[in-house]
Amino acid sequence: VFASLLSNNFEALHFLDLLYLSSSTDQVEGRLGPSTVVLDHTSGFEGLLFVDDDLLGVIGHSNFSSIRATTCAYKGKWVYEVLISSEGLMQIGWCTLNCRFNQEEGVGDTPDSYAYDGNRVRKWNVTTTNYGKSWAAGDIVSCMIDLDEGTITFCLNGQSLGTAFSNIKMGPGVAYFPAISLSFKESVAFNFGSRPLRYPFHFYIICYLPLQDPPTADLIKAHRLLGYMKTVLSTCIDTQEEKLTEKDIGSWQLKGEPTVLVTLAHIFNYFAPLMIHYLRLTTAILRHEKSRKYLLSNVITFDVLRSVVFFYIKTPLRVKEAGLEELIPTTWWPTRFDKEGKDEKDLRHETADERMRRRAYERGCQRLKKRIEVVEELQVQILRLMLNNKDKGTGEASRYIFLNKFRKFLQENASNRGNPTVLCPPEYMVCFMHRLITAVRSYWDEGKRKSTGAISSEEAYVPPQLFYNGKVDYFDLQRLGGLLSHLKKTLKDDLATKANIIIDPAEIQATSMDDLDEDEESGAAQRPSGAAAMGGALARPSWLSSPTLGRANRFLSTAAVSLMTPRRPLAPPEKVKVRSLPVEQRTEEDIEGSHGNDGLLLGRPLEEPDQPITEKSLLEILDGIVMMYNLSVHQQLGKMVVVSDDVHEYAVALKDTEEKIARCPGRRPDILEELQKSQKVFAEKLNHLSRRLAWINATIYSKEKMLDVYWLLRVCIRTIEHADNTGSLFAFNPEFYLNVAMNSYSALKNYFSPSNSMDELPGYEDTLTQLAAILAKHFADPRIVGTDIKDSLMQALASYVCYPQSLRAVERIPEEQRVAMMRNLLAPYEQRPWAQTNWILVRLWRGCGFGYRYTRLPHLLKTKPEDANLPSLQKPCPSILLQRHMAELLSQDKDMAASFLNSVLNQLNWAFSEFIGMIQEIQQAAERPERNFVDTRQLKVCATCFDLSVSLLRVLEMTVTLVPEIFLDWNRPSAELLLRRLAQLLNQVLNRVTAERNLFDRVVNLRLPGNARTYDMSPLCSVTRVVRLTVKRINGPAIARAASVLLSDPCFQLHSIQHLLGETEASTAGADHKHFSLHAYTDYISAEEEQKVEQMLAFLTEESKQAAATTPTSEDDLCPICYAHSISAIFKPCSHKSCKACINQHLMNNKDCFFCKATITGVEDYSKPAGS
């Protein structure tokens, strides 16, 4: 079949290429520039772009980037084609050399440039008008210019859109370049004629010529290559007469003749194996041992476009060409949505027609999946052949050749992550990873059946000794404990005692000197001129390495490592040098070990069980699979979700349009016509997207692929657990294992659902609990020093506690770990990422606070629904168990409680002050006569400060509710100070927020788009609860003290409390001004809560009256620092005086006296003597 197909293809290609060659055999006048037309990446561009290696593909990387070609035309008729890779905002056409573009103006926005925009369906030449059709990803745009008639025409997929421009400027000095302007992340690929035009048989081929002449020399080579293959297929070896004989090409079969196979391998190396026939041919060739090893050693080198492409199944951009219309003739998409815009899962309301369409669509998806599974099975067979480790008759086994090439492949991709042009495309990496998992697991389980002591692939993990024994090179990937050279010096004793590994001191010293040299070089490298800095390689992205760790790691594979014999502890340890070889020079013995040599598992720690796991080569491949996921697979999984989001958006738009059509009055046929056009466009787009989504669900988000990612998650969890058991040696663990554990869980939760439910995964709840234990323990683990990984752990834990199922998993971890986690969360906020910590505590409290039972703020409920999976938009799910742990810790540890609350109050003071400063600037900008727009970034910072203030207030509310004695039990040394600071901050917040027509009130009423979250209900609810609990929680003297502190604060104003219930004076506001009142939020504030607020207001009103009736304190008796409280403390030894609040707060940061600067050794109570 393959031979016949190849023969037919050869004839067809020969005919097409001859026709292509005959269309332009002579040099045609009318062009200027290089004969090979590419994009001008040296001077003909504006903005930031990524240009492919062939200089024909381009991706926009700034707001609106422009680039032109290297060749122009000044007479004649010319054409070039553009493949639309993304369907966003782009303007494609022609421009002259005089055109000057910027980030706002591109092709078509200047006088001598002309463009077509299929995104907005318009043409551009300074002004713009409607033109053409809407394009989609995968479409071909043909751009034609007639410099004899002065016209420009565009075609979409070979169909003319009509003349776009006529009477264009021509004459001496005027020449037009192909050009494009495109927005951020949009991408296209140009064809100026280096390949046959996609639509060569349409009308324009007669008159219009490609801007580049055909590559005659390459075509001749291709004809010869096809001829060679045809000759090989029609030749066989007569072993008896020892000569070559001819045979019918249609009867050719693979019989394993080495000469023919190797010849085919050479020829086949130049063809991209994108068809199933090529995969079958590859499988047949690889079954021959010598051919397989030859290919592994010399051809399949794991570069970007060769071997990995064997395992790639390309996602079609054009549904028709992929045959999806035949496989899935009936399309379907969700048609029912809830009030928040989410897909409705209840199928009971389906109509009979909707049910029939859905089932037909699902049958089509199953047909597609079965077709794809055939290809995937062939790809797995190829990998299994490459992973054969029994073919040792002709040299080294195939698996070890593959393993060394695979490690080199990983090194190239890990080392060039800042340069995307040399990386393996992530879509290739996804398919390769899944096939490799299948092949490795099959070999792993085969080994388990042969060795009863080994573990199955379901229990697979990577032993911790791989991370510190130097047998596996981890390139420049970071370790949890920092630089490897530092770890080798600081943990050399632990390596000796725990893993029987000794590092040669001379090697450590040599490494240290290398570190100094590299530091000097890196310091010099950081001082280039501006031009050199901009023109060099791209900077390392922040997600690759921690900025606190500086440069790339050196690795233990370069160290001299030896075994220490434990039976002779008194004798000097015997050093057995381990060879440090480049990856490509390793042998089977270096990997698997022999005669007492443990190979990759050298240096087993005492905590690691002494049992076989599997073949050691499979462990290194498994380690590589985890690294692959971290390099690019996770990012690609996230990118492909956009297709599902597009289906949802178009389905909502279509339903909305259909409802408008139903409501459209009969007297407006013009509106009805436009609505029907929109309906048709949306339906066509949904037909395309639903078929494409079926392909993506089958190749990327299927149940089998979900199980692969879940298996990888469990591998990482077990690997981290085993490494954690080694104590200090855990620091050698690469960071990417923790990253993959967190990211794979995120992918399972956010990318694979709802088509596949996580609840159906085997052992899912236990896995959630294991991951919860890892996050709870390691987010504050002192063995982890990288800033990036610590932030990632904190963010993962913050997200984890937002969802009921994962929060229950946190509650299931052992009590000791839960208490330790809460203790770490309650550590002082200084010198650590306190905002995420505070967010975690707030999530544990949401649902218990005063008026804190909402998901979104009430005034945001009617806005456009956001992503339902965002952690911040989950329904309240408080944890009473973790709240109890928090209360016990703060109640029992007085020092920790004081330091924690002081840090919360400090951060609240800072956040609220920053917020007030921001809204002052916003108000000033809004009141300017020229009405300048407020900077969007400023609005976001303002909203962030507001959110931080509200969350800190909620934590204070939580603390006062759970442990009121921290403030009200004055037997505690810091209770009075904390209470006074709390009263001061609460009064400041109340005064700022509740004052009529004040700054806060005016800015909130502006309703600026980026400041929508700023709203007065949020802070007032939390403040109300804190004030009410402070003055009413405990009976007896505590109430009197609390009320006295609150009322004696200079900032206290009773009308701020009255404002909560809407009790403001009518004269202070206009008739049209809407008063705030807690009574208006009956959905969030219960009648019981309102009643308690009224009781609090009555109590404070009575207390303020009594305070006003008392004899005022003499000015001489007031504290000389704050002039708000009476003198109540005397300093020793200098005898100066102040109130207790002032001196206590001062002594937190300074031990010198306010007045004389003498060192204060003690503070005693002071009361004014009677009669003085």
TrEMBL record:
One of its GO terms (biological process) is proteolysis involved in protein catabolic process. InterPro entries: B30.2/SPRY (IPR001870), B30.2/SPRY_sf (IPR043136), ConA-like_dom_sf (IPR013320), RNF123/RKP/RSPRY1 (IPR045129), SPRY_dom (IPR003877), TPR_RNF123/RKP (IPR057987), Znf_RING (IPR001841), Znf_RING/FYVE/PHD (IPR013083). It holds the Pfam family TPR_RNF123. It comes from the Eukaryota. Residues 585-595 have a biased composition (Basic and acidic residues). Coiled coil: none annotated. It is an enzyme of class 2 (transferase). Keywords: Cytoplasm, Metal-binding, Methylation, Phosphoprotein, Transferase, Ubl conjugation, Ubl conjugation pathway, Zinc, Zinc-finger. Its main location: cytoplasm. One of its GO terms (cellular component) is cytoplasm. Signal peptide: none annotated. The keyword Ubl conjugation applies. It is found in: Cytoplasm. Residues 17-197 form the B30.2/SPRY domain. CDD domains: RING-HC_RNF123. Residues 1119-1157 form the RING-type domain. Component of the KPC complex composed of RNF123/KPC1 and UBAC1/KPC2. Interacts with UBAC1 and CDKN1B via its N-terminal domain. Interacts with RIGI (via N-terminus) and IFIH1 (via N-terminus). Pathway: Protein modification; protein ubiquitination. GO terms for molecular function: ubiquitin protein ligase activity; zinc ion binding. It catalyses: S-ubiquitinyl-[E2 ubiquitin-conjugating enzyme]-L-cysteine + [acceptor protein]-L-lysine = [E2 ubiquitin-conjugating enzyme]-L-cysteine + N(6)-ubiquitinyl-[acceptor protein]-L-lysine. Residues 574-606 are annotated as: Disordered. Its EC number is 2.3.2.27. This is E3 ubiquitin-protein ligase RNF123.
